[in-house]
């Protein structure tokens, strides 16, 4: 994990507080990124306690099927029902889709998908759509033309942005739509055995944003991590990701020896959450560092060249957010 020197953190916070912020108004939203709808009382309480009125709900995926050269499109199973809440649909499109299909074909499948979602009463409001696609130089033209087609069907069109697409925007391009969401998580490859925390690294995030974000020529929102996982390695190769495991469970696991703060080695073959773990396998636990999330929000309020900033936590369906809601309320206090 990323642990910053306490004296340095205090100095940074004081410096940020002494400067006038570019952002005058902030709001908080959440993602729902699961094909099943399982809203718990704890989730609702977190939303209500933190004045969260908007949920960005992933309603469908577009994934390239290499075997059949087709697009697989799994849909959310039922409507995300939240009383008096603003739910905006998000559609994930794998970059390979635009490598193999034209923007016209993708748009046709998109319209068919929206029709299905409306028939099932999963989508009822067609004013706002957000697209999640990690486009590349080879797919940029098709993707941007696809987005242009969306503008005729929706009043508001947003996209997700990877941080390199901000730093190098003159090369990667800027889509001509309403806003972009800075995805400030999954900054490194989880498959890299040497990485300590692939989910979030404050210094790495700043290396992409500092000196660049202020000049980015589009309105932005900021998506911050509110999830954790454990990466399972066998002979230093990623085997799988354990999503439903806590740090405390790993510490208490008698079959593991703790090597460092967040790395564990298996003493013998066993199972974790029904997943087989071999002897000598490495488990690397990852979660966002709360203190540096506070610093990041302070930085964003200074650097974003706009009066309003919306912060979106990824995600409401993650047990980590609900289990650490008091710590995330500390993060939210930075916005005041």
Determine the number of helices (DSSP H or I, runs of at least 4 residues).
12
Q: What is the makeup of the main sheet?
A: 8 strands, parallel, barrel
Integer count of domains: 2
Helix proportion: 25-40%
Structural class of the helix and strand makeup?
alpha/beta
**What is the residue-mean pLDDT, rounded to a whole number?**
92
The CATH superfamily of the largest domain is known as Glycosidases
Which outline best applies? globular
End-to-end gap:
27 Å
CATH class of the largest domain: Alpha Beta
| Main sheet: strand order | 1-2-4-5-6-7-8-16
The CATH architecture of the largest domain is: Alpha-Beta Barrel
Strand content: 25-35%
Which stretches are poorly predicted, pLDDT < 50 over at least 5 residues? 1-7, 9-18
Tell me the Rg in angstroms. 21 Å
Order of helices and strands: HEHEEEHHEHEHHEHEEEHEEEEEHEHH
What's the β-strand tally? Answer: 16
CATH topology of the largest domain: TIM Barrel
